[in-house]
């Protein structure tokens, strides 16, 4: 199968066609949503949540204290999940951009394209796992 540069489609093999323009648009949308929606919302929430758990400050009850601890742990877990999500979204969007650029090349065989996609996804997964396990912060 041959590539159709005019439509931004590339053949992978076995009749599978990939629309590289769609991958590029997807990547841009993920980056845009992350930077314009999720990140500002997280930043706003973090300002509020960094002040700590506010309820029950004047209550010496053991039950209230335990609830505050569970709530604080839940907030930490939620915060970590959001940070990991934003990082993973960016890494995967970058991988999609890279794959789209590769599909726009006309000099690769179908097997080389499949290998490239597999390698890009594997590299993204390794990078995300490394960050999750205490790698570089975003």
Distance between the termini: 41 Å
**Shape descriptor:** elongated
- Tally of separate helices: 3
Largest sheet: 2 strands, antiparallel
Q: How much beta, percentage-wise?
A: 5-15%
Number of strands: 2
What is the average of the pLDDT values? 84
Q: What percentage of residues falls in helices of 4 or more residues?
A: 55-70%
- Tell me the Rg in angstroms: 22 Å
Q: Helix-strand pattern, N to C?
A: EEHHH
Structural class: mainly alpha
Walk across the major sheet and give the strand order.
1-2
Flag low-confidence runs: none
Tell me about this structure:
With 138 residues, this protein is mainly α. It contains three helices and two strands, in the order ββααα. It has helices at residues 20-49, 62-104, 110-132; strands spanning 9-13, 16-19.
Summarize the structure.
The protein is mainly alpha-helical and 138 residues long. Helices cover 70% and strands 7% of the residues.
Q: What descriptors fit this protein?
A:
138 residues; mainly alpha
Write the layout of secondary structure elements.
Layout: E1 9-13, E2 16-19, H1 20-49, H2 62-104, H3 110-132
Antiparallel strand pairs: 1-2
